[in-house]
Amino acid sequence: MTTSELKNMLTDRLSRPMRDLRISVTDRCNFRCDYCMPKEVYGEAYEFTPKAQLLTYEEIWRLTRLFVRNGVTKVRITGGEPLVRNDLASLVALLSEIEGIDDLTLTTNGYLLAAQASSLRQAGLKRITVSLDSLDDEVFGRMNGRGFGVARVMEGIDAAASVGLRPIKINCVVRKGVNDHTVLDLARRFKGTGHIVRFIEFMDVGNLNGWKMDEVVPAAEIVARIGAEFPLEPVQPNYPGEVAGRYRYLDGSGEVGVISSVTQPFCSACTRSRLSPQGQLFTCLFGTEGRDLRAPLRGGATDDELESIIAATWRSRTDRYSDIRSSLTEPIGHKIEMYQIGG
Q: Is residue 123 within 8 Å of residue 78, measured between CB atoms?
């Protein structure tokens, strides 16, 4: 990076640059995971955001261009479950044409992936992350709230691999007494495949998941469990601000990752911005309210005016929720739900 680029780099009040944009394209999901969208709350009668209030793909494209002009190089499409939104490949095609995006990826629960993997790859998607909390059908069905088995998700992973959406990352939220006894199964199944399993500490995202500190399995314990059967060694991050701690199998058969936002917060290196389906800009996964971009966008604001709002929002950012929470045993305050801005 040149001296001129450093001087003009957009940073927040804690000197953190904006490098990542997570775009939530829908608040709907075909799963009802209890740590995100518990079925007791989000039943069949629940009213999600009407289509007219969602950003269109063209509006998302326009805003993404402005985020890229302010330093974003990594773009991730999320939800809800992004694959439930119609013709998602057309959005991928639009985003893939934006100069300056080095990494265009998507996070999905994988249930609809097998049928869409090829079209997403052809549209320009580079890689994919699949959420899979257990290989045990009973455990997985209970966690996804629908009773769905693992087979269809595995078909999606295989389809993604076959069309070149690599490396595939597989995210597992680990909850003590729920699925932590199946951690080794996941590590064992994907060891040697080229896929990277990442184990995520159970977080107090949103307000409805009943989070308690004693249900958190520390990342260090997860690494110790895996390492006892498959010896591991730590690996340097791929880039500054990478959230997952990396560990390599000593036999050279791949790696696993752990995301320790509860026991070892990484707020000081966070470079993520988030765009909700309704066009709200959030600067933290645990945010309480966002900055509305949809109203000025639809009200005739110019690119320069929209860019000024984005820049001003990031420059005023002081978020460090996980740092503050790390010394506590209960969640803090009212926060936006995870299904509205992705993980």
A: no
